Amino acid sequence: MTVNERSLLPRTRRLVVKIGSKGLTSGDTGMFHSLAAQLARALRGGRRRREILLVSSGAIALGVQHLGMKKRPTQMAGLQAAAAAGQGLLMHRYAEVFAEHDLKVAQVLLSHADLANRERANNARAALTRLLELGVIPIINENDAVATDEIRFGDNDELAAMVASLCGAELLVLLSDVEGLLDESKKRVPYVPQLDGATLGLATAEISKVGRGGMRSKLESARRATLAGAHVVIASASRADVLCGIVSGDDVGTLFPARSKPLSTRKHWIAYTLRPQGAVIVDDGAAAAIVRDGSSVLSVGVRGVRGGFSHGELISVMSGAGDEIARGLAGMSASEAARLAGTQGKELAPLIHRNDLVVLPRGA
Q1: Residue-wise pLDDT tens digits, 80-103
Q2: Per-residue pLDDT tens over the stretch 119-165
């Protein structure tokens, strides 16, 4: 029931809030003041001390304004220059405005490579945890000044979902320019028990002129965060006291409840942080065993190999119909997998061991 799950939100101890570029780059600091006031009330409200991590866009948009660019650049060098110019301005605004509410902030810049490497991800988790222990709000953004297409996140919605998983957040709030997911008649959908193809069909892939996201991106990020055990709410950044309403359990935005059986941190990292370096195609019998039982991927069921992956790299598992059914860490190289495809033998190591395999939700 929606009521029961919303009633759990006031118990939230750790939450991630993501805000996009539009509300932060309107030319004044109104949204910064509103956000600071709401975060201050959310931190100090309730019976338990809360911890908040803020994933913030806006560096490139502010840099574009500061450098006098007529529009957002399309080339990587221009985007990096705008990010370099805008990130300091963004943090200055946060530090100045949040100080008025006795809130301390710290800048944390991440790249996809930071989270794709287990040691670096653990270091990032430790640093963020220590900041929270010190009563500081981490302001997290992608390190756009040095990011390239190969190592960047899709957008900050994706980054926010990764941060929620990394830090074990119980709630992820994605603040947007709409009041939540809208149905065909443009009415807010208050509750989505499980993301499926029909729900994804309601989303548009439109991208903001100042940002990179869209509702489709938010839904995919919501899916990933719920699989990590976090509730997700998509709501309007311009709604009065939106954060306080959400953490009070009010009927605000669209709620996506956490999965009752979330993925472990490691398996979530395998499925939704690493990027596939290749793929294997399996026959119908192998596909059924993998989806139904989470069985290891064995060479006997492999019908094709794509890409030039190495041992330990992430690969996709595809059905004969072309659907991605699972992801996992390769137990051998692509050349060895191709050589052994279709062969059987007890002495053969699995192509992907079941402990390194994640079956993807249908429609993912």
Answers
A1: 899 899 999 999 999 999 999 999
A2: 999 999 999 999 999 999 999 998 876 765 544 566 889 999 999 99
Cα(114)–Cα(129) distance, integer angstroms: 16
Q: Which residues contact 135 (CB under 8 A, 6 or more apart)?
A: 104
pLDDT in tens, 196-222: 666 766 765 444 444 445 788 899 999
Of 286, 303, 360, 299, residue with least CA distance to 330: 299
State the amino acid at position 8 in one-letter form: L
- DSSP of 79-118: HHHHHHHHHHHHHHHHHHHHHTTT-EEEEEEE-HHHHHSH
Angle in degrees, 0-180, between the axes of helices 156-167 and 215-227, rounded to the nearest 10: 10
User: The tokens of 174 are what?
Assistant: 């994605």
Domain containing residue 301: 276-359
Whether 55 and 155 share a structural domain:
yes
Helices vs. strands in the chain: H and E counts, helices first: 13, 12
Give a yes or no: residue 298 inside a domain.
Answer: yes
Domain count, the chain: 2
